[in-house]
Specification:
It is a single chain. With about 130 residues, this protein is α+β, with helices and mostly antiparallel strands. The chain is built from 4 helices and 5 strands. The strands form 2 sheets. It has a 3-stranded antiparallel β-sheet with strand order 1-2-3. The protein has a two-stranded antiparallel sheet with strand order 4-5. Strand 1 (about 5-15) and strand 2 (about 20-30) form a beta hairpin.
Length: about 130
Amino acid sequence: ISVIEIKEDAIIDRQKSRLNFVIQALTLVVPASKTKAGFDKPVASFKYKDVYNLFRSTENCIWYNPQNEMKHLNMADAFDLRLFQARIIKKGNPKNQFLTDIYNGDREGLLMSQMIEHQLLELESDLWEY
């Protein structure tokens, strides 16, 4: 298992002019290249609060920092600091479809993912103006 899907809510804090992300769940996924059917297969989903408590209570849950050997972090801290790199694959919609399904193809889904990411960055930037 090399893929983790992160389900999170984006919440606008107008008083502090910030866009906050609250992680709701983590899903372990077997990538398409490792399955016989040739598509991603979700294995298990966990409520983030439960996983967070596990990370805090276990010393072996370490986020390795390749740039600084002295600054390895607990996985809970790494998720809090948003040290992961991720691509947006879904946005709230009535049919609960992936972006690639909505926009008919991998390329279009990737372009929309990047556009949504830029829109979120611009939204956070615009919060400072109000």
